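From: lab user (bench 3)
To: helpdesk
Subject: output format question, protein + phosphoenolpyruvate

Hello, I'm new to running complex predictions and I'm not sure whether the block I got back is the full result or only part of it. Here's what I submitted:
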Amino acid sequence: MNKAVRKAVIAGNWKMNKTPKEAKELLSAVAPLVKEADCEVIACVPFVDLQTAIETTDGTNIKIGAENCHWAESGAFTGEISAPMLKEMGVEYVVLGHSERRQYFGETDETVNKRTKAALRAGLKPIVCVGELLWERECNITEEVIARQIKLDLWDVSAEELKNIIIAYEPVWAIGTGKTATAEQAEEVCAFIRATLAKLYDPAAAEAVTIQYGGSMNDGNADELLGKTNVDGGLIGGASLVAEKFAAIVKAASK
Ligand code: PEP
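Helpdesk reply: Thanks, we reran it on our side. This is the complete output you should expect:
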């Protein structure tokens, strides 16, 4: 992390876990443990938990995010949720392009880009996820894959809008597998993302972007990963469901 130039951000991604009652319990347990955090703390929760999460974290330093949003403001999209709907509730962040959305729900770079622009228009801060498959890493095309995702996902996003975007580097082979990228691998790709942003925008704009690592980050490996210059935080899946583990990662990011 380089806290002198950008914000450190630890975000939980609860995925399809926790009912509203359980969400209240978990956030009530997390809040006192992270109240001294010297980093941004976010919980991205299922749509049905958002209202409870916003109420439970009122007056705390925990911000609330959603796990997706549609690109249209409203319309005939049964089952979808729009960015203005989230904004009106008090949601601040939204995870977009998570590999599980890409893998199971046909999400493409084009739809991630449309969702990103819709989120920005509504005043939400997108956490845009990119990452290579194991096969792509083995074929030595990680950088090509990441550059393509960054270019397409951020197509037509201005330098001004980039200030409200967090990028999460999540190697797909490390998500939910217990297989973490080494700190060196995470740093290498996060630095590559920053260099790509510098080419697309300018070096100062790229320097200011928070780039998280995600993929089996936990209380045991957070210190080492967050010790790297270009790893500005974490997007945490499994470990965000256990108050003590999530709080330990927040503590590591607060150093
Ligand atoms: C995630 O869901 O974004 C994630 C990184 O999951 P996990 O920490 O469980 O690998």
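A quick orientation on your result: Residues 9-253 form a domain with the TIM Barrel fold (CATH 3.20.20.70). Let us know if anything else is unclear.
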